């Protein structure tokens, strides 16, 4: 097989960087002293290779290493294990960037099945950004959440997702919630003529998730939300293979804890086949910079042979007032997710949603046509 | 239901800490402005509550919050989601400590099924520390790995695990590797009379893992290794339920514990039912302090009603020469894992292993009798 080109960022003293680079190359491959290995295949084809160690200034080094793609075996979880499994335990190290060779990309699967284009096509939104909101707070009954879902859909929004905290709790068991919200969606879309999608949140073991998808399909739904850092990326890969018609939106829950650059993580999740990536927008509740957000969006939509573009979904403390700014920043290849700001409108939810939707439609019309993404 | 007592550590300016505490309590519960919520159940039983904000000095604050156990629904993945899902995205925040109420602990399951006591009983090691090594490097064929396994077992070691990088790669597919190593183990243990256990590494989706466990059981094995941060903690929970007779050793791959305190993570994994926790020992390849290691070991064995003690497994750059020091530090409630240091002995592997084992036996005999762990 071939080699994965991996860049780590090391915060440390310059004298240390070369030695740390060699240590990482060993740790992320044979994980034992090379001098104790005499097998030529292992030393030639498995042992990691340091390509470059470069100072980025400010005590930061970029360490570039080639890791053997043969160690991955086509498993996305194993890919994470070999890229950063043990090295994630170093507080001064970040997994910054990866370039996966074509044979490994193919071994990981067919990638996103709907992607940005599919999510657009489903709601008839070829030439504009997409709109999304969230059902909150958890603690509401299925009927309470369904009322919100209906109000959002009556405002013409494209996607309505569960709050990621909704799982299967006593106050809102999954089957009842999905049935109520799906029915609400059918009522609303019959009135508006706009095919708004309800997006349940999947949780629990893979077995539990399969049962949730059975219910989802029974209700005629075709979109779901997952948290790859909670469910496990190999399970995401499995879902992608087994449910090619279900669009998967990825939520970043727990993804912040592992010191993987968010744009790099977006690439990894796109490889595993998710169709959209939710992330904290700059200027919201979280501290992501504009640059980080741009890089996440780029990682989502960068044209890549054999890998469909996915929808970047900036979220977290967004407001309708910021929509023009957000669309200027991201362009139209984006799904804007506004939750609390709309829910705060209480009884005016549908009107506030309609205003959100109208702003997106009008602003997108003023922008240049979107490029087609393979 | 009841409340989970959660402590976060915040690196930030004192003026900010109270506001951040309130924000975290909201983020990890209703995730929207409380003023936009009028449902009394949500505000009374779901919304997180700040208990205390305390300066620890050096710009560090301890923030203590009560989170509603009702949001967890008995799902270990959902527990992670509600404890730290979105808040993991804050670079200045760490999940430091949790105390789970008894009803939630029961809802999460029966906990470890073998635990430290079961791992001891299986190898007849009631009054001493346990010994373990690892099959490396990956890239070796099944036969090559089996030769190492046999050599370790002939040295009288208790547990021989796969290197966590071994999954199902072309050079060592899981079925062939397990068959070869299991056969080697049978040969060796027939000669030594010591019931050494081979511990395959599980990887891939939950479906793939079930197939691996089928093979494992077919080979008469009863122990396996998992990486909860890669497989997903809800899937660990599922395995625990479905395979009560399989001892599960947890590997810290990707656990990147800088922002979930390693002892807190140990508690979470113990709740999900793993029987042993592998972690980087102080003074080895990783930067964990003595204090951190002690806290991990304490979290593993602390007597807890309804939750069996699990084996702490310090690893990572350990050596036979350090065994007395390690046993003085951890006592006998530990499984010492030495990999590279033994493998570096090449042809002398069995003798070196026998020396490791003898050192542990002799040193343990000199220590006080172990306490019994419920």
TrEMBL record, chains A, B:
The lineage's top-level taxon is Bacteria
Where in this chain does the record put each Ribulose bisphosphate carboxylase large subunit C-terminal domain?
Answer: 118-342
Q: Which InterPro entries match?
A: RuBisCO, RuBisCO_lsu_C, RuBisCO_lsu_C_sf, RuBisCO_lsu_N_sf
SUPFAM superfamilies reported for this sequence: RuBisCo, C-terminal domain (SSF51649), RuBisCO, large subunit, small (N-terminal) domain (SSF54966)
Designated name of the protein: RuBisCO large subunit C-terminal-like domain-containing protein
